[in-house]
Specification:
- This is Thioesterase domain-containing protein.
- By secondary structure, this protein is of the alpha/beta class.
- The protein is 35% helix and 12% strand.
- The chain is built from 9 helices and 8 strands.
- Strands 2-1-3-4-6-7 form a 6-stranded parallel β-sheet, with helices on both faces. Strands 5-8 form a two-stranded parallel ribbon.
- Helix 1 links the parallel strand 1 and strand 2.
- The longest helix is centred in the last third of the chain and has 22 residues.
- The protein is globular, with a radius of gyration of 19 Å.
């Protein structure tokens, strides 16, 4: 398996399990998703993505451009994305990264996911300091000012109390915040037909409800919103149970029906299969079902070859 993927060992899944590719938040490694593996098995196979310069790949150079990083991911995992039904999940920084991966997959005419889960972040269209509830640009700060701003924004982290640990992770976090704070969508006027689930926590001070609802402008499908009560920004690690129940309900249904749908041919896989499963899902969350504007450009399942000539168009 690619060194980009770090699944938890010893977890068995069904042969037709839906793959869930997971992208972590700034400063985190792929192992943050290991606790999900047994909870979503056997119908969902959790495939955490390990980014260069993080955790098990700490010695590798990091990438500070979101679009370039998404291209590297698709270069490395193209065969994995083409090997059966899958979904994308990204938390915080990982939400924007998952969105860029989706767009790069479409540009290359690779199979698209059943669903995109974007968690703990405002819509990609709302990038930039003008939409950030805390406009401080952490990637521009030296260590002392960085940690003051970091703790003001996210709270004190006992795991980062030692000066040696702070000195070790500071370069990685600074690069990750460069990735986030300089992000510009590669195709800002393009929508996808892939359904999006936008997830937020009521006690997370990094975004507003309207920031989350704004993900609707990125898809022609009806946006699903999931709100987690009583939780803050790190809910994917601290208290993921209610979130995993929602994901399991959707993707387990897709897994159990994928074999019969695939018998109908390629049209029954990818986005089409995901849309079929939506008719049968039980969603323990608040849903926002807004209709997109007909004038918006759409990211199709099979784009014209001209869209595939360059990674990061316009950048």
């Amino acid at each position: 398996m690619s060194h980009w993927l770090l699944p938890k060992r010893g977890v068995e899944t069904n042969a037709d399990a839906v793959k869930l590719f997971c992208f972590p938040q700034a400063g985190m490694g792929a192992a943050v998703f290991h606790a999900w593996s047994e909870r979503l098995a056997p119908h969902v196979q959790v495939l955490p993505v390990e980014l260069p310069g993080h955790a098990s790949r700490m010695r590798e150079p990091r990438t500070t451009n979101m679009c370039q990083l998404s291209c590297q991911i698709v270069d490395a995992l193209a065969s994995s994305f083409a090997s059966g039904p899958y979904a994308l999940f990204g938390h915080s920084m990982g939400g924007w990264l998952a969105w860029e991966v989706l767009q790069e997959l479409a540009r290359r005419q690779l199979p698209l996911p059943l669903r995109l889960y974007v968690s703990g972040n405002r819509a990609a269209a709302l990038h930039g300091a003008e939409h950030d509830l805390d406009a401080t640009r952490l990637h521009t700060l030296e260590a002392d000012a960085f940690w003051q701003a970091f703790e003001r924004r996210y709270g004190a982290n006992p795991q980062l109390s030692e000066p040696k640990i702070k000195a070790f992770v500071y370069p990685m976090l600074k690069d990750d915040f460069t990735l986030v704070e300089t992000y510009k969508p590669s195709a800002p006027d393009v929508k996808t037909s892939v359904p999006i689930t936008a997830i937020g926590a009521r006690l997370d001070n990094r975004y507003t409800a309207s920031h989350v609802s704004a993900w609707q402008q990125h898809t022609t499908a009806a946006l699903q919103e999931v709100w987690l009560e009583g939780l803050g920004h790190n809910y994917i690690a601290d208290a993921p149970d209610s979130l995993l129940q929602s994901i399991a309900g959707q993707l387990s249904c897709a897994s159990s029906n994928s074999h019969s749908n695939q018998a109908a041919g390629p049209a029954a896989t990818g986005v089409e299969l995901g849309e079929q499963q939506l008719q049968h899902q039980r969603v323990p969350a608040t849903a926002a079902l807004n209709q997109p504007s007909s004038k918006d450009a759409v990211l199709p399942n099979q784009p014209e070859a001209s869209t595939m000539k360059h990674c990061c168009p316009g950048q």
